User: What shape does this take?
Amino acid sequence: MLRRALVVATALCAMPVLAKDPELKFEKYKLGNGLTVILSEDHRLPQVAVNVWYHVGAANQTPGRSGFAHLFEHMMFSGTKHAKDFDTILEQIGASGMNGSTSFDRTNYYETVPSNELPTALWLESDRMGFLLPTLDEQKLKIQRDVVSNERHQRIDNVPYGPTQQRVCDLLYPLPHPYFECPIGGIEEIQRASLDDVRDFFRRYYGPNNASLVLVGDFDSATAKRLIEKYFADIPRGPEVKKPDVKAPPISSVVQETLQDRLAQLPRFQMIWNGLVPFHDDEPAGDVLSEVLAGGKTSRLYQLLILDKQVASSVDANNPALGLGGWIQVGATARPGHTSAELRTLLQQAIDEVKQKGVSPDEVERAKLKIVAGEVRSVERASARADLFNAYETWLQDPGYLPRDLARYRAVTPQAVQAFARKYLPDDRRLELTTVPAGKQTARTP
Assistant: This one.
């Protein structure tokens, strides 16, 4: 009996121990002015991640007013009635990771501060929300217009293949679609923004009822609630913001375009299809397909175009889901001496193989493990966890969605990946964009 017990014990010890999914505890409530608050205590480190999402982005642009949300991302750092220099104050209190960003569907501001400086961070964010307009003048607007224009030059106009990616927005989302010009906007429209335009945009979209505040880290919830009440409760709510409901027009044929790029040294070829909205039932299969195609050195495109045929220097595939409809992209950049036509042929071959023969269980399992592990690792950081809470709240009104999010990726099958490719990557309805070094080929339009 003892020997048998020892054998059983040895066998149990040899069994792999599976890590548990992180348990993210939180509390959610609303202030009287409509501000959504999410609190998640974590006392492992003496710091607090502060994360504010405003539900405004490129989706809220109107024709002739592109880039306004992005412009305001910068305006919100230009000082308020009681805080003249945000960055200096945050640096003085030992903050880290302070910044903001604008996407197609939201604008966020975030910083991580020592636990004892949480009152300062909340004061700053409340002043940004409630007391920006009193100090907004022509000089500040001019400075930030020039900053944004310069950023467009640095990130789009003066980056190899940058204009091509901007062109994707224009082709997928033609006017009057609000995604036209992408979140960064057009320089001429940004420079035309008047003080009245900007003030009106702020009043419309930056009220507490169009925002959510997340705290993750070393704080006492009761104390945090008192501070949030103190700094935010008196800010008046703004007008009710109607959720944009503009569909991306479906691609109805093969649209081919060649663009000359003065900074590109090598040809690049991309295929782009209409995509999905966030948390669509088919989104996980699309993300897994992207990993199978181009997620590292074991991926199909890397093996075929880079190792086997040696015609490409890089390959990529992605499936960004956006509030008004995203896109699915597969692309490659050529090696010296090779052409975009070669890239197109091999990319088509890889896509055809997925549609006709499917993908293997090993490929799918490897992709799922990578996606799930990346998500689990990310929430170890308080700042990433705070942003994830805000994303789940924005799209699903459920900050605790993580277990179900991981489950939907774990449920992806090889059959689902093949079905996604067949459904969403049609050969007769897509954009085909070729980028060539300037002077090598005459540009043509569809």
Remarks:
- The radius of gyration is 24 Å.
- Confidence is low (pLDDT under 50) at residues 1-17, 441-446.
